[in-house]
Every structure is written in structure tokens, then in C-alpha cells.
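sry for the spam today, last one i promise. C-alpha cells for design, 344 residues
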């Protein structure tokens, strides 16, 4: 092992699930890098819906104990013998789903379409830990000018760019965003920049208020009587674009009830629900799925210029030792949270 690795501690703290609602901060070995792997000292990570679903058991990992956290921002501190792309001191984004890095699509910057797309972060210890050892292809340099917190929240902006490139809504078009969380707020802010009009469906009042502050013309609780009538009134009876930012069966059933014939549905996550193919065909719907974002340079420019400020949605910051209590609080709904960051 090189001197950089020998200077690191032999053990680290890592958040690991030992079962649903059983998150512990364990001491585990720091895994040495081999081949083209590098060790990243994690500095900042967003706590996202998938993490909470793993915490509650709504998503079951391959086995317990299991690491938690799908992406982080950090600093390279050691490299394997075949690593060439990164050096100690480089600031990087350790991504969740990652392309292979070598196929034609990856070479064109379309790693989210890679046939060999994998989840190295979740297999190799995950983001909620002091260090993580990962292959080079799963890393990206932090774009110049971004703070750690901005870089940790880059993906919702990139996902909004991805959705817009496929849907091609424009000035005056009406877009309904289902779920005003971090992903939904990115969709609202980006749609506003394109001149589109937005309406949000969100059960939590604080999130509805923030959606309006970020540019939505209206926001209602979808569980309240008459909520869908409010949306149809706002859209003059024709809901042409609906973006799902919740990825639950209930939300997706609502979306297909809401969208007008000939309309477009954007799905940014999966729920296990079987889509109503007959309904889609008979109503001439266009359904688009999105895994990850695109347009790193464009998203960076939007953030550094101030056109979009993802950090404006941050409501909580937690240290690693506080994470078990934080997840319990968020899962139980004891405090309304917006974007939540883990600061390592």
C-alpha cells in the first residue's frame, strides 16, 4: 500500500442498518484500494427518500448489516496502483448509479443509459461513512465554483434538465409536479426558468409553501377533497404534463387519473406498481422514465449564476453520530423536513 493509505486510520465510523428502524454507527475497517480504486473521505451527503425507505424497510437491502447512502461529495485521499483519473486532494462526487465509463454511451456522457449501469456506492459501504473505497468510473469531479453542499444537491437540477429535454414543455405550458420534495423543487425551479407554469401536489404544508416560494402558482394537498378539481380548474381542464417525484403506487395512480388524453407523464422513480398499459394506449399517453440526470455543465451554470439555489431548500444538517435519531425523526414525521444533509 502507498504512503497515502498508510497515513489513514485503519477503522472508520459507518452508518449501517441491522434491520428496519435499526440504524447504528459501527466501527468497520477502511477498505484498501486495489486496481483503479480510490478512497474518498466523505464530506457531505444528501439524505434522500430511498435512504428513508431502506430505513423503514419499505425497500429491503440484499442483507443485513447494510450500508446506507447513495451518493456523497468528498475528497480523494488515496489511490490504487492502476488509478489514473484522480489524485489525492481532488474533490469528487461519488455517484450512486454509475455507468461503466468505457462503453460508447458513457464516452458520450450518457452514463445514465449504460447497459452495465451499477450501484458501486451501495455495494461498497455507502455514503454515510467517514470513508468509501470506489472504482474511478463511479466518481466525477466537483465542477468548479460549487460548494460541497451545492455539489451534493446537483442531481435534482440535472434530473430536471433530463425531464425537460424529453418532455420539451415550453413557455406557457402547464406542468403539474407531484411531490414537493428535493426532486420536485428542482422540477419547479427549472420549469419556471423555461417559462412554464407549475402547480404542485404535496401533503405537507411547509413543503407546499416552499413550492410556491420557488415558483409554483399553486399547491394543494392531494388527499383533501376537491384537490384534483383544483388542478383541473387551474389547467382549464387539460393537464398535459405531469412529473412524478414521489414514486409510490398511490401517487402514480393519482397521476394517471389526472393526466389528460394525449398528455405526458414523467416518472422519476419506481413503486412496484404495474402500469396500466390499456389505459396508456386508449388515452394516447406518452410515459417517460428517468434514471439520473444529465447536463452537468448546464446545471452548474444555473447554480453558480444564482438562477437556481438548491441550498435554499435545506432545513436540517446532521453529523454522523446524529443520523440514527435523525432518521427516526424523519420517518415518524415528528418534524417537517425539507432537504436534509449529512455533514461528515
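last one done:
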Amino acid at each position: 500500500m502507498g504512503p497515502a493509505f498508510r497515513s489513514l486510520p485503519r477503522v472508520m465510523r459507518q452508518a449501517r442498518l441491522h434491520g428496519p428502524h435499526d440504524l447504528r454507527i459501527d466501527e468497520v475497517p477502511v477498505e484498501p484500494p486495489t486496481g483503479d480504486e480510490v478512497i474518498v473521505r466523505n464530506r457531505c451527503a444528501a439524505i434522500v427518500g430511498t435512504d428513508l425507505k431502506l430505513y423503514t424497510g419499505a425497500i429491503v437491502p440484499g442483507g443485513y448489516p447494510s450500508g446506507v447512502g447513495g451518493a456523497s461529495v468528498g475528497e480523494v485521499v488515496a489511490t490504487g496502483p492502476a488509478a489514473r483519473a484522480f489524485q489525492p486532494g481532488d474533490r469528487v462526487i461519488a455517484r450512486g448509479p454509475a455507468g461503466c465509463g468505457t462503453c460508447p454511451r458513457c464516452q458520450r456522457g450518457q452514463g445514465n443509459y449504460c447497459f452495465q449501469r451499477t450501484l458501486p456506492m451501495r455495494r461498497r459501504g455507502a455514503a454515510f461513512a467517514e470513508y468509501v473505497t470506489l472504482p474511478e468510473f463511479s466518481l466525477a469531479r466537483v465542477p468548479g465554483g460549487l460548494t460541497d453542499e451545492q455539489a451534493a444537491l446537483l442531481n435534482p437540477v440535472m434530473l430536471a434538465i433530463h425531464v425537460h429535454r424529453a418532455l420539451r414543455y415550453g413557455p406557457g405550458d402547464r406542468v403539474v409536479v407531484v411531490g414537493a420534495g428535493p426532486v420536485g423543487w428542482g422540477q419547479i425551479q427549472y420549469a419556471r426558468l423555461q417559462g412554464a407554469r407549475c402547480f404542485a401536489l404535496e401533503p405537507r404544508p411547509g413543503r407546499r409553501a416552499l413550492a410556491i416560494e420557488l415558483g409554483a402558482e399553486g399547491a394543494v394537498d392531494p388527499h383533501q377533497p376537491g384537490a384534483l378539481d383544483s388542478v383541473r380548474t387551474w389547467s382549464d381542464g387539460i393537464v398535459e404534463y405531469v412529473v412524478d417525484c414521489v414514486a409510490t403506487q398511490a401517487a402514480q395512480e393519482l397521476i394517471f387519473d389526472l393526466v389528460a388524453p394525449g398528455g405526458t407523464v414523467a416518472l422519476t422513480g419506481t413503486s412496484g406498481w404495474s402500469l396500466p398499459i390499456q389505459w396508456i394506449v386508449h388515452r394516447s399517453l406518452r410515459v417517460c422514465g428517468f434514471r439520473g440526470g444529465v447536463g452537468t455543465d448546464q446545471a452548474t451554470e444555473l447554480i453558480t449564476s444564482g438562477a437556481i439555489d438548491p441550498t435554499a431548500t435545506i432545513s436540517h444538517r446532521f453529523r454522523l453520530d446524529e443520523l440514527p435519531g435523525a432518521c427516526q425523526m424523519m420517518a415518524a414525521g415528528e418534524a417537517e423536513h425539507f432537504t436534509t444533509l449529512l455533514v461528515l
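The mean pLDDT is 88. ok im logging off now
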